[in-house]
Design brief:
This is DUF397 domain-containing protein. The protein has about 70 residues and is an alpha+beta fold. Helix content is about 15%, strand content about 20%. It has one domain.
């Protein structure tokens, strides 16, 4: 997958701080969405999600599915 990410444009939330605890996201040309840990400086692993899976994940965030109780 690393060759798929060669031209990726990585973004962080505007709410992120420069403390190294951020997740970066790249929207790929084929519709997938890739994520990685910012503190790996672009050399660590990345995960790529199909568009439907990414939409379901975001829906879970909005619905509070991942909040610690």
């Amino acid at each position: 997958m690393s060759s798929d990410l060669a031209g990726a444009v990585w973004r962080r939330s505007s709410h992120s701080q420069n403390n190294g605890q951020c997740v970066e996201v790249a929207f790929l040309a084929d519709g997938r969405v890739a994520t990685r840990d910012s503190k790996d400086n672009g050399v660590g692993p990345a995960l790529a999600f199909a568009p439907g899976k990414w939409a379901a994940f975001n829906g879970g965030i909005v619905d509070g599915e991942f909040e610690q109780r």
